[in-house]
Structure formats: structure tokens, C-alpha cells
Amino acid sequence: MIFKAGVANHVRACRARYLADSFWKQVRPRPRTLASQAGSGQQMTAGVMYNWRVAAVHNALARRGKAEGPLTIEDLTSLGHLDQYHYLGTEACDELIQVLGLEPGVTVLDVGSGIGGPARYIAHQSGCSVTGVELQADLAEEATALTKRVGLQDRVDFLIGDFADVCRSRAVLERFDHVTSLLTFCHFPNRADGLKVSWEALKPGGTVFFEDLTLMGPAFTEQEQRDLAEVVGCPSVTSPAVYVEDLQKAGFVDIEVVDMSAPWKTWTKARHVGFRQAQEETVKLHGLSLFESRCAFYEVIDRLFQGNLGGVRITARKRGVAEEKLYRGRASTVSTGTTHGTPSLNEFGITVDATYSKY
Ligand SMILES: C[S@@+](CC[C@H](N)C(=O)[O-])C[C@H]1O[C@@H](n2cnc3c(N)ncnc32)[C@H](O)[C@@H]1O
How many of the other CB atoms lie within 10 Å of CB of 110? Predict the structure, then answer.
């Protein structure tokens, strides 16, 4: 395994105690009736806040005269964080394409695909095919609708439900060349299981590209633990070392971890400041309630990155068929290190005691 950019000196202990249940399961999809409400500046209540993203996309497209009909990829990527829910927007997707060497004909499984922005952009730029899995039905349905409007429906599709359940029940195992995930595993109550399913979904020799939150300081403070669990919905943020252990247990090899904390810290600060500066336009488009709630959220993220929160980009690999056989073959003989006690002759005709110990 390789650590890059100073991740090596992290501290393993993660004393944070988190909510046992998934945050995302608490924010089940709500009826899709917000587009017009938010657009007319009506206040949204907390109870209907969670599908604000679908409504916000509708509002923004309507404002540009594109409420219906065909769209270009740029129509969507220009919506910024309404299309790409991770950090560094399409720049991160460009790097993903480059690192994995994506090209026409290869298949990608995107874990926690949101409204489908990364899946569409990656498929459009590289020519590959992408299947997204998304827990929130309203996001996945909107992802499918937007994908059709940009004409990518033959190469990009979305499955609705919990990643592990969907993969295990829909026979998508051993089907993909690559598994990607941008800021999703941090939301899993059981990240280790998510990593195991990712490994199972890959063809032998397949690779992964994950971006995720991690503990970078010595330990989270109590306030940080609360913010992560209750505001950000992230019950499984650990140090990179614990992450790597989970990856190894899932079967991954050739693990590389790149520290993304510095660029993400700068980016999340700029997002917070920029969002506040755009108050007038945002309130006009999406309403005051949404503006205030997003401000509060972006402020918490900004503060967490000033503290013990950081992030990583992880790439790793599933062994190929021949490599797996070699690995298992070695493992099956390493304990005895003998040729079953049968003496043999060496090239000089001298008996060799085959019960030597392996080095
Ligand atoms: C921060 S968003 C990132 C979305 C997308 N990767 C992007 O960058 O635009 C995390 C997404 O993961 C989804 N998610 C969380 N837990 C999930 C699970 N167990 N199975 C599938 N999706 C999940 C959430 O609903 C949310 O859309």
C-alpha cells in the first residue's frame, strides 16, 4: 500500500461514537412538489427540506428556459453543486477518468450516485458505461430523467436502493471493470460491508476510485462528532489507516491513499463564503429557508475542515484470476513448507531432506 502527501502519520484511534442508524434512511424521499413552491419563494419546512436538490435543479433549469426538452451536459454541469454533490466538481471527475483510464466499452458502478451528475459527466467525457446506485428514490428518478434529456440513456442507468442490498439482489456482482464512489461511504453505517460489496461487484482485476472523508487530526472533538453524525449524516468517518484495514479485509490489494484535505479545505471554505455572497440571487430562486439551511450546513463543513476532518482519494485493485490462484496457492503451502517428507535427489545424486523449513 502507498500513502501519499503526508497521510502516513495519521493516528489510528477514532473515538467518535456515532448514530447507529443511517442518516440517509431518515431522509427518505418526499413528494416531488417543491419546484414551484421554492421558485415562488415560499418557505420550505424542515419536513420537506430533503428533496430540495431536485426542486432546485428544476428551478434553475426553468430560470434558463430549459424546464423541458433536450439538454446538454454543460447545461447540467454549469449548475455546479446541484449536479455534482462532491468536492471540486467536474475537476474531480476528470481526474477519476484519467486515473482509471476510462474509455469506451468499460463498465463503471458508481456507489451513491446522487442526481447522476458524475455518472453522466464521466460517461460523456470518456465514452464508458456507468450504472449508479442511489438510496434516495427521488434523486435516482431525477437522475434517470435528466440522463434521458442529455441522450445518455443507452450508457448510463440508475438502480434505486441501498447499495449492498441492490448489488446482492440484482445480480450485479462480478460485472464491473471499475467501482467509483464520491463522498458516499462516509454515510454508510457499515462501511466495511460496502467495501466488501464493491469488491464483489468487480470483475477479477478490476479497480476502484473512492473519495471520502477521514479523520486527519488526533481525534474528533465531541462537537465534531455531533456535527458529523447529526448534521452531515456521516457515521463512519475513520482515520485512513482504519480505512485501509477495511479495504484489505474486503480483499483489495495495491492500495494507494492520497491526502485531499488541503484542496478540500480550501474548496469548502470558498463554497461557504461564495454561497453567502450569492444570498440575494439564491433567495430569489430557491427561497429564504433553503438559503439559511444551506448556509448553516456549509458553515459546519467549513468548520469541520478547519479542525480534525480531512479527506482522501483511494485507489485499489481486485486481484486478477491468475494472481488470485497464485496468492491462494502460496497461502496453501506456506504453513508446511514441505514436500510431504519424501526425500529426493539433487543434481549430484545426493539425497535432499525435503522436510526443510521455508524461509
Ligand atoms: C454526498 S452525496 C454524493 C452523490 C454523488 N456521488 C455526487 O458526487 O454527486 C452521497 C449520496 O450517497 C447516497 N447514499 C448514502 N447511503 C447510500 C447507500 N447505502 N446506498 C446507496 N446510496 C447511498 C445519498 O443518498 C447521496 O445521494
Answer: 28
pTM: 0.83
Counting from 1 in the atom list of ligand 1, the atom nearest the Cα of 182 is 6
Which of 134, 210, 237 maximizes ligand 1 atoms within 8 Å of its Cβ, making it the mutation to test the pocket? Answer: 134
Strand partners, 107: 129
Is 112 a pocket residue for ligand 1 (Cβ < 6 Å)?
Answer: yes
Task: State if residue 184 touches ligand 1 by the CB under 6 angstroms criterion.
Answer: yes
Residue 117 CB–ligand 1 contact under 6 Å: yes
Set out the domains of the chain in order of their start, with CATH numbers.
2-319 (3.40.50.150)
The DSSP bridge pattern shows strands 344-345 and 309-317 to be unpaired
How would you write the pLDDT of the chain (359 residues) with one tens digit per residue?
555 543 333 322 222 222 223 333 333 333 332 323 333 333 333 333 346 889 889 999 999 999 999 999 999 999 999 999 999 999 999 999 999 999 999 999 999 999 999 999 999 999 999 999 999 999 999 999 999 999 999 999 999 999 999 998 877 889 999 999 999 999 999 999 999 999 999 999 999 999 999 999 899 999 999 999 999 999 889 999 999 999 999 999 999 999 999 999 999 999 999 999 989 988 888 889 888 988 999 999 999 999 999 999 999 999 999 999 999 898 887 555 555 555 566 677 776 655 544 43
β 344-345/351-352 pair status: antiparallel
Nearest alpha carbon, ligand 1 atom 24? 112
Number of the ligand 1 atom closest to the C-alpha atom of 83: 9
What is the distance in A from the centroid of ligand 1 to the CA of 109? 13
